[in-house]
Amino acid sequence: MIVIDQCVLCGAQYQVEIRASQFKRWQDGEYIQGAMPDMDVYDREFLNSQICPRCFRELESDAEDWVQSEASDEHPLSPEPSTPLPRGGRPSSEGERKS
């Protein structure tokens, strides 16, 4: 059988060829990778999320770029180095009696 649907991100029409028995196993609750082990991962992803392979690869690339930038010390959203708390566990405030 052929499943034809539209990508939810770009609107392109995409089709996937699948055996009816595999489709039924998936619809009956089996994980898609178990029901369709020989199917291309991007075709399975399209069936699961309606995101076409081209858009999914872009999402993967963007996610990899984000992870790499998060690991960088030069990332603009990196937190400032924290100031260690004094003994006692809380910062002292003005006017507080020190012992």
Concise description?
With 99 residues, the protein is an alpha+beta fold. The protein contains 4 helices and 2 strands.
Largest sheet: 2 strands, antiparallel
Task: Tell me what portion of residues adopts beta-strand conformation.
Answer: 5-15%
Amino- and carboxy-terminal Cα gap: 80 Å
Helix content: 40-55%
pLDDT < 50 runs, ≥5 residues: none
- State the helix count: 4
Computed CA radius of gyration, to the nearest angstrom:
25 Å
Structural class label: alpha+beta
Find the count of extended strands (DSSP E, 2+ residues). 2
Mean pLDDT, as a whole number?
A: 80
The best one-word shape is: elongated
**Order of strands, widest sheet:** 1-2
Strand and helix order: EEHHHH
Describe what you observe in this structure.
By secondary structure, the chain is α+β, with helices and mostly antiparallel strands. It has a domain at 2-58. It is 40% helix and 10% strand. It contains 4 helices and 2 strands. The protein has helices at residues 20-27, 32-35, 41-49, 53-71, and strands at 2-6, 13-17. It has a two-stranded antiparallel sheet with strand order 1-2. A hairpin with a 6-residue loop joins strand 1 and strand 2. The model has no long low-confidence stretch (mean pLDDT 80).
